[in-house]
Amino acid sequence: MKKIIITLDGYSSCGKSTLAKQLAAELDYVYIDSGAMYRAITLYFIQNRIDWNKPEEVAQALSNIQLEFVYNPLSGSSEMNLNGENVEHMIREMLVAEKVSEVAAVGAVREFAVAQQQEMGKQKGIVMDGRDIGTTVFPHAELKIFMTADTAIRVERRFKELYAKNKNITIHEIKENLELRDYIDTNREISPLRKAEDAIILDNSQLTPEDQLKLVLQWVDDAVMVKS
Ligand code: CDP
Ligand code: CDP
Protein backbone atom coordinates (compact mmCIF):
# COMPACT_ATOMS: atom_id res chain seq x y z
CA MET A 1 0.00 0.00 0.00
CA LYS A 2 1.39 3.45 -0.97
CA LYS A 3 2.34 5.65 1.97
CA ILE A 4 1.02 9.17 2.33
CA ILE A 5 1.22 12.14 4.68
CA ILE A 6 -1.73 12.56 7.06
CA THR A 7 -2.21 15.85 8.88
CA LEU A 8 -4.43 16.33 11.94
CA ASP A 9 -5.08 19.88 13.07
CA GLY A 10 -7.54 21.26 15.55
CA TYR A 11 -8.30 22.75 18.94
CA SER A 12 -6.73 21.61 22.15
CA SER A 13 -7.81 18.24 23.60
CA CYS A 14 -10.09 17.18 20.81
CA GLY A 15 -8.38 13.84 20.39
CA LYS A 16 -5.71 14.56 17.79
CA SER A 17 -2.90 12.61 19.40
CA THR A 18 -5.22 9.72 20.26
CA LEU A 19 -6.21 9.40 16.60
CA ALA A 20 -2.65 9.98 15.37
CA LYS A 21 -1.31 7.16 17.56
CA GLN A 22 -4.09 4.81 16.47
CA LEU A 23 -3.39 5.54 12.80
CA ALA A 24 0.37 5.15 13.17
CA ALA A 25 -0.06 1.76 14.86
CA GLU A 26 -2.64 0.54 12.37
CA LEU A 27 -0.80 1.71 9.24
CA ASP A 28 2.76 1.27 10.48
CA TYR A 29 3.39 5.01 10.05
CA VAL A 30 5.60 7.35 12.07
CA TYR A 31 3.67 9.62 14.44
CA ILE A 32 5.00 13.11 15.10
CA ASP A 33 3.51 15.22 17.89
CA SER A 34 4.40 18.74 16.72
CA GLY A 35 2.89 20.24 19.89
CA ALA A 36 5.52 18.39 21.94
CA MET A 37 8.20 20.38 20.10
CA TYR A 38 6.61 23.74 21.03
CA ARG A 39 6.14 22.48 24.58
CA ALA A 40 9.82 21.44 24.85
CA ILE A 41 11.01 24.82 23.52
CA THR A 42 8.75 26.51 26.09
CA LEU A 43 10.18 24.36 28.87
CA TYR A 44 13.71 25.36 27.84
CA PHE A 45 12.73 29.05 27.79
CA ILE A 46 11.17 28.80 31.27
CA GLN A 47 14.08 26.84 32.76
CA ASN A 48 16.64 29.24 31.31
CA ARG A 49 14.63 32.42 31.94
CA ILE A 50 14.59 33.39 28.27
CA ASP A 51 12.49 36.46 27.45
CA TRP A 52 10.67 35.39 24.28
CA ASN A 53 9.81 39.00 23.48
CA LYS A 54 13.51 39.68 22.82
CA PRO A 55 14.57 38.39 19.37
CA GLU A 56 18.31 38.16 20.19
CA GLU A 57 17.64 36.09 23.31
CA VAL A 58 15.33 33.80 21.34
CA ALA A 59 17.85 33.31 18.52
CA GLN A 60 20.64 32.50 20.97
CA ALA A 61 18.42 30.09 22.92
CA LEU A 62 17.18 28.27 19.81
CA SER A 63 20.77 27.67 18.72
CA ASN A 64 21.24 25.74 21.98
CA ILE A 65 18.15 23.56 21.64
CA GLN A 66 18.21 20.06 20.24
CA LEU A 67 14.90 18.23 19.93
CA GLU A 68 14.55 14.54 19.28
CA PHE A 69 11.77 11.94 19.47
CA VAL A 70 13.10 8.78 21.11
CA TYR A 71 11.13 5.54 21.12
CA ASN A 72 10.41 4.19 24.60
CA PRO A 73 9.64 0.47 24.48
CA LEU A 74 8.02 0.68 27.93
CA SER A 75 5.36 3.21 26.88
CA GLY A 76 5.29 1.96 23.29
CA SER A 77 5.56 5.49 21.92
CA SER A 78 8.09 8.12 20.93
CA GLU A 79 8.90 10.58 23.67
CA MET A 80 10.27 14.11 23.55
CA ASN A 81 13.94 14.58 24.37
CA LEU A 82 15.33 18.06 24.94
CA ASN A 83 19.11 18.25 24.69
CA GLY A 84 19.35 14.54 25.45
CA GLU A 85 16.96 14.55 28.43
CA ASN A 86 13.56 12.86 28.35
CA VAL A 87 11.08 15.67 29.12
CA GLU A 88 7.89 13.86 28.04
CA HIS A 89 6.22 14.23 31.45
CA MET A 90 7.46 17.71 32.26
CA ILE A 91 6.15 19.24 29.03
CA ARG A 92 2.58 18.13 29.85
CA GLU A 93 2.47 20.09 33.11
CA MET A 94 0.39 23.24 33.56
CA LEU A 95 3.50 25.39 33.97
CA VAL A 96 4.30 24.71 30.30
CA ALA A 97 0.64 24.67 29.12
CA GLU A 98 0.21 28.19 30.51
CA LYS A 99 3.00 29.65 28.35
CA VAL A 100 3.25 27.46 25.27
CA SER A 101 0.84 29.42 23.07
CA GLU A 102 2.74 32.67 23.70
CA VAL A 103 6.02 31.01 22.76
CA ALA A 104 4.48 29.28 19.72
CA ALA A 105 3.36 32.67 18.38
CA VAL A 106 6.98 33.86 18.03
CA GLY A 107 8.09 33.80 14.37
CA ALA A 108 11.63 32.50 14.98
CA VAL A 109 10.28 29.67 17.13
CA ARG A 110 7.86 28.61 14.39
CA GLU A 111 10.58 28.72 11.70
CA PHE A 112 12.80 26.54 13.89
CA ALA A 113 10.08 23.94 14.51
CA VAL A 114 8.52 23.91 11.02
CA ALA A 115 11.90 23.32 9.30
CA GLN A 116 12.46 20.22 11.44
CA GLN A 117 8.90 18.98 10.92
CA GLN A 118 9.21 19.29 7.13
CA GLU A 119 12.47 17.36 7.22
CA MET A 120 10.75 14.53 9.14
CA GLY A 121 8.01 14.34 6.50
CA LYS A 122 10.34 13.75 3.57
CA GLN A 123 9.89 9.99 3.80
CA LYS A 124 6.02 9.85 3.70
CA GLY A 125 4.26 7.32 5.91
CA ILE A 126 3.85 10.08 8.47
CA VAL A 127 0.97 11.22 10.63
CA MET A 128 1.55 14.60 12.27
CA ASP A 129 -0.80 16.50 14.55
CA GLY A 130 -0.79 20.17 15.51
CA ARG A 131 -2.31 23.49 14.51
CA ASP A 132 -0.72 24.43 11.17
CA ILE A 133 0.28 21.07 9.73
CA GLY A 134 -2.21 21.02 6.85
CA THR A 135 -1.87 24.74 6.13
CA THR A 136 1.87 25.45 6.54
CA VAL A 137 4.00 22.40 7.28
CA PHE A 138 2.55 20.03 4.65
CA PRO A 139 0.23 22.05 2.40
CA HIS A 140 0.39 19.22 -0.18
CA ALA A 141 -0.45 16.36 2.22
CA GLU A 142 -2.68 13.69 0.69
CA LEU A 143 -5.09 13.52 3.65
CA LYS A 144 -5.87 16.49 5.89
CA ILE A 145 -8.24 16.27 8.84
CA PHE A 146 -9.49 19.17 10.93
CA MET A 147 -10.64 17.88 14.31
CA THR A 148 -13.08 19.48 16.64
CA ALA A 149 -15.32 18.60 19.62
CA ASP A 150 -17.61 20.56 21.96
CA THR A 151 -15.64 22.67 24.43
CA ALA A 152 -17.29 21.10 27.50
CA ILE A 153 -16.39 17.64 26.25
CA ARG A 154 -12.79 18.66 25.52
CA VAL A 155 -12.41 20.16 29.01
CA GLU A 156 -13.82 17.02 30.59
CA ARG A 157 -11.46 14.80 28.59
CA ARG A 158 -8.34 16.82 29.46
CA PHE A 159 -9.41 17.08 33.12
CA LYS A 160 -9.72 13.29 33.42
CA GLU A 161 -6.29 12.86 31.89
CA LEU A 162 -4.50 15.39 34.13
CA TYR A 163 -6.45 14.64 37.33
CA ALA A 164 -5.20 11.05 37.17
CA LYS A 165 -1.66 12.44 37.62
CA ASN A 166 -2.34 15.49 39.78
CA LYS A 167 -5.27 15.58 42.22
CA ASN A 168 -4.81 19.34 42.83
CA ILE A 169 -5.86 20.29 39.35
CA THR A 170 -9.29 21.91 38.92
CA ILE A 171 -11.70 21.75 36.02
CA HIS A 172 -11.88 25.56 36.05
CA GLU A 173 -8.12 25.85 35.55
CA ILE A 174 -8.25 23.42 32.62
CA LYS A 175 -11.16 25.24 30.97
CA GLU A 176 -9.40 28.60 31.26
CA ASN A 177 -6.19 27.20 29.80
CA LEU A 178 -7.90 25.49 26.84
CA GLU A 179 -9.91 28.59 26.00
CA LEU A 180 -6.92 30.90 26.27
CA ARG A 181 -4.72 28.65 24.12
CA ASP A 182 -7.44 28.22 21.50
CA TYR A 183 -7.85 32.01 21.40
CA ILE A 184 -4.13 32.75 21.01
CA ASP A 185 -3.61 29.89 18.54
CA THR A 186 -6.50 31.04 16.34
CA ASN A 187 -5.65 34.72 16.43
CA ARG A 188 -1.87 34.84 16.15
CA GLU A 189 -0.35 36.49 13.08
CA ILE A 190 1.85 33.65 11.85
CA SER A 191 0.26 30.35 10.83
CA PRO A 192 -2.87 30.66 12.97
CA LEU A 193 -4.96 27.58 13.64
CA ARG A 194 -7.42 27.24 10.81
CA LYS A 195 -8.92 24.56 8.65
CA ALA A 196 -7.05 24.03 5.38
CA GLU A 197 -9.45 24.45 2.47
CA ASP A 198 -9.07 20.82 1.48
CA ALA A 199 -9.29 19.37 5.02
CA ILE A 200 -12.13 17.07 6.10
CA ILE A 201 -13.84 18.12 9.33
CA LEU A 202 -14.07 15.47 12.02
CA ASP A 203 -16.27 16.37 15.00
CA ASN A 204 -15.70 13.57 17.47
CA SER A 205 -17.87 14.90 20.34
CA GLN A 206 -20.03 11.78 20.15
CA LEU A 207 -17.46 9.33 18.77
CA THR A 208 -15.45 6.82 20.73
CA PRO A 209 -11.78 6.46 19.75
CA GLU A 210 -12.71 3.14 18.08
CA ASP A 211 -15.50 4.77 16.02
CA GLN A 212 -13.25 7.57 14.85
CA LEU A 213 -10.48 5.17 13.85
CA LYS A 214 -12.86 3.11 11.70
CA LEU A 215 -14.13 6.21 9.95
CA VAL A 216 -10.70 7.68 9.29
CA LEU A 217 -9.21 4.43 8.01
CA GLN A 218 -11.82 4.59 5.27
CA TRP A 219 -10.62 8.13 4.42
CA VAL A 220 -7.04 6.86 4.32
CA ASP A 221 -8.02 4.11 1.86
CA ASP A 222 -9.70 6.70 -0.35
CA ALA A 223 -6.69 9.05 -0.23
CA VAL A 224 -4.26 6.24 -1.06
CA MET A 225 -6.45 5.15 -3.98
CA VAL A 226 -6.45 8.68 -5.43
CA LYS A 227 -2.65 8.80 -5.13
CA SER A 228 -2.11 5.38 -6.79
O1 CDP B 1 -2.39 18.45 23.36
P1 CDP B 1 -2.90 19.84 23.19
O2 CDP B 1 -3.89 19.91 22.05
O3 CDP B 1 -3.40 20.48 24.40
O4 CDP B 1 -1.69 20.77 22.74
P2 CDP B 1 -0.42 20.43 21.89
O5 CDP B 1 -0.76 19.79 20.59
O6 CDP B 1 0.54 19.73 22.77
O7 CDP B 1 0.12 21.89 21.54
C1 CDP B 1 0.50 22.79 22.57
C2 CDP B 1 0.55 24.19 21.98
O8 CDP B 1 1.60 24.25 21.00
C3 CDP B 1 -0.71 24.65 21.25
O9 CDP B 1 -1.69 25.21 22.11
C4 CDP B 1 -0.12 25.69 20.29
O10 CDP B 1 0.08 26.94 20.94
C5 CDP B 1 1.26 25.14 19.96
N1 CDP B 1 1.29 24.44 18.67
C6 CDP B 1 1.41 25.20 17.53
O11 CDP B 1 1.41 26.43 17.58
N2 CDP B 1 1.55 24.59 16.32
C7 CDP B 1 1.55 23.26 16.21
N3 CDP B 1 1.71 22.70 15.01
C8 CDP B 1 1.40 22.47 17.36
C9 CDP B 1 1.26 23.08 18.59
O1 CDP C 1 -4.10 15.65 21.09
P1 CDP C 1 -5.29 16.36 21.63
O2 CDP C 1 -4.94 17.43 22.60
O3 CDP C 1 -6.17 16.90 20.54
O4 CDP C 1 -6.21 15.32 22.40
P2 CDP C 1 -5.86 13.89 23.02
O5 CDP C 1 -4.79 14.04 24.03
O6 CDP C 1 -5.67 12.89 21.93
O7 CDP C 1 -7.25 13.50 23.69
C1 CDP C 1 -7.68 14.04 24.92
C2 CDP C 1 -8.48 12.97 25.65
O8 CDP C 1 -9.68 12.70 24.95
C3 CDP C 1 -7.75 11.62 25.77
O9 CDP C 1 -7.81 11.20 27.11
C4 CDP C 1 -8.54 10.69 24.88
O10 CDP C 1 -8.60 9.37 25.36
C5 CDP C 1 -9.92 11.31 24.88
N1 CDP C 1 -10.71 11.01 23.66
C6 CDP C 1 -11.98 10.52 23.77
O11 CDP C 1 -12.47 10.35 24.88
N2 CDP C 1 -12.72 10.27 22.64
C7 CDP C 1 -12.24 10.49 21.42
N3 CDP C 1 -12.99 10.22 20.35
C8 CDP C 1 -10.93 10.99 21.30
C9 CDP C 1 -10.19 11.27 22.45
From TrEMBL:
<dbReference type="Pfam" id="PF02224">
    <property type="entry name" value="Cytidylate_kin"/>
</dbReference>
<keyword id="KW-0547">Nucleotide-binding</keyword>
<dbReference type="GO" id="GO:0006220">
    <property type="term" value="P:pyrimidine nucleotide metabolic process"/>
</dbReference>
<feature type="domain" description="Cytidylate kinase">
    <location>
        <begin position="6"/>
        <end position="219"/>
    </location>
</feature>
<dbReference type="GO" id="GO:0015949">
    <property type="term" value="P:nucleobase-containing small molecule interconversion"/>
</dbReference>
<keyword id="KW-0808">Transferase</keyword>
<dbReference type="GO" id="GO:0005524">
    <property type="term" value="F:ATP binding"/>
</dbReference>
<dbReference type="GO" id="GO:0036430">
    <property type="term" value="F:CMP kinase activity"/>
</dbReference>
<protein>
    <recommendedName>
        <fullName>Cytidylate kinase</fullName>
        <ecNumber>2.7.4.25</ecNumber>
    </recommendedName>
</protein>
<dbReference type="GO" id="GO:0005829">
    <property type="term" value="C:cytosol"/>
</dbReference>
<dbReference type="InterPro" id="IPR003136">
    <property type="entry name" value="Cytidylate_kin"/>
</dbReference>
<keyword id="KW-0418">Kinase</keyword>
<comment type="similarity">
    <text>Belongs to the cytidylate kinase family. Type 1 subfamily.</text>
</comment>
<feature type="binding site">
    <location>
        <begin position="10"/>
        <end position="18"/>
    </location>
    <ligand>
        <name>ATP</name>
    </ligand>
</feature>
<dbReference type="InterPro" id="IPR027417">
    <property type="entry name" value="P-loop_NTPase"/>
</dbReference>
<dbReference type="InterPro" id="IPR011994">
    <property type="entry name" value="Cytidylate_kinase_dom"/>
</dbReference>
<keyword id="KW-0963">Cytoplasm</keyword>
<keyword id="KW-0067">ATP-binding</keyword>
<dbReference type="GO" id="GO:0036431">
    <property type="term" value="F:dCMP kinase activity"/>
</dbReference>
